[in-house]
Amino acid sequence: MTQFTQLGLAEPILQALNAEGYTEPTPIQAEAIPALLAGRDLLGTAQTGTGKTAAFTLPILNTIVRTGTRPQPKSCTALILAPTRELALQIAESVTTYGRHVRPRIAVVMGGVKPGAQIRAMKGGVDVLIATPGRLLDHMNTGAIRLDGLKTVVLDEADQMMDLGFLPGIRKILNATPKDRQTALLSATMPKPIRALAHDFLTDPVQVSVAPVARPIEQIDQTVQFLDKPQKLERLVKVLSQPGVTSAIVFTRTKHGADKVCRRLNKAELAAVAIHGNKSQNQRQRALDGFKAFRSNILVATDIAARGIDIDGVSHVVNYELPNVPESYVHRIGRTARAGATGTAIAFCDAEERPLLKDIERLIGYRLAVTDENGKIEHPSKPFSEEPRGRSHKPGGGQKSGSQAARGSGQRSASQRRRNRRRRSARKGGTQGAAAQA
Ligand code: AMP
Q1: Does 77 sit in the ligand 1 pocket, CB within 6 Å?
Q2: Hey, how many other C-beta atoms are within 10 angstroms of the C-beta on 351?
């Protein structure tokens, strides 16, 4: 196993890693750090939780130590672009932590706050600028920052930036940087427009791919509860009042929904806070800090606000409403079971959401175990097929836990597949068994 000491990082960085208790690089770090230190471009398929932030941050800090050059006024040496304000702040926190003995000059530039402090922070020049694309373009237009002295650009969560409509802005930003810069692009998925971006702006990149998005982490105990829409609020109170729920994130589809859920939880004296795009940056940060410090143990969030956020120790993720895009389900449940811990993901599904559930199950390759409101398994997980759920199940049979079931189905053997085929053909001839769950 590779150690950080073998990667060629400078002593002040190794000291900071040591203080964090990190000795071994994660797979993406082991591959990306030597490549970036050698000056190569990087194209990484990786989602949050893989250690990707350190993978691109440590080489930037290393260059600052080795070269010792100071940036010109109103310019930066390294630029890290991120889709959301929360992720930008989180990256800044990582740069500060890993750079505690390097003490780089950093500035964070993002929307939702007044620009004055950002302009002042960039005035003397910064080593590392962390920015969301929209606000950075504003500052470029007013001349508060120029990018022609830049050495490294990182595009973090590129697919998320694309979803938010930032691709044209990113192209503009990259066109304002020197051609001989080093570029790293990281993305959880690689849709066509991201590949095109990489093709246009990366030079012979080293390609690294870890933990593809279509495979949810196996330590997560995933279940679904079927219920009517009007039952959801009360069911949520019940689920979150259980003693095993130490720290939970609840996902809603809309900002309005997040507020409504939060109010109901507070009424039930559950310590919940909401984050979404309608909240001011200060409110969002306060909510997040409170959650991280366990002052509130429930965070109610929309996808955009929560993606990329790295919080350890989340015991439960509740999909209060199923996402329209099945990949979002995988991102959402990835908030729990971090750093090798186990976690629980509960999905609520009403009649209208059945097609969304089917899309999710098609993506992950198996049907979620169905539980009643007390979490008791009614139907165990099984491999996904297009046929309706319920026909092959004897109610109450196969009382496996959701995670066992999920693990089992994730590693289907040839004999299991044969058994499933036999069951399917037997069912075609049979008539009984209402499609209870379909
Ligand atoms: P990221 O994917 O960058 O969001 O990182 C996920 C989590 O892994 C963060 O909490 C990091 O602090 C942590 N982490 C990063 N690198 C390592 C490492 N080499 N060993 C242990 N934990 C790490």
Answers
A1: no
A2: 9
